[in-house]
Input
Amino acid sequence: MGSFETDILRYFIQKIMKNAQHEQENMRDFIVEVVKMFFLALIIIVPVRMFLFQPFIVRGASMEPNFSEKNYLIINEFGYKNTPITILGKNLLTVKPHKNLKRQEIVVFRAPHNEKQFYIKRVVGLPGETVTIDNGEVKISNDQNPNGYVLDESAYLPEGRKTNGLTTVALGNDEYYVLGDNRPASSDSRMFGPLHKNDVIGRVLLRAWPIGTMHFF
Output
């Protein structure tokens, strides 16, 4: 092979090697960027899911007509959820809830006797109050109303819907009384008693689906 052919071959070999090196560097940069994005996502998503927001899909008819089967909700956990911080199976610390739920807010919580199942209900009784259900009505007694008053639920209960049952419950300092809006078809505090704040996951912030019923609460 002559000198000219040798120079041409050397040129193309160098060109191929340079392109291969360039491609290798591009691939290395790509992998580095993917790894960066992965860890960035972990840094952002994990705290959000652990402390701030969580999706929830409604199952059952206990909150109809205000929430229906397969409604997709976003739950605000911040300040409401009892969150253990665990690494490699060891519990390092537990973030305690520091916010109080308000009357008529919709809450998601662990089902009694089954931590893997979750319920959605409405708060009607607050810590320290006494809740009485009688004659189809909910009556609240507290420091401001020692003789009690009938709770106005017209904003979320259909006209004529009654609260069946006959009970009086005094709530502790960390307890809430919760009821489903579909009173005849709801398993709630009338059955399982008061809800302890440590079982609360969060309050409903947004109904995101169906899109036509999107609403902030």
The chain is about 25% helix and 35% strand. Helices lie at 3-52, 189-192.
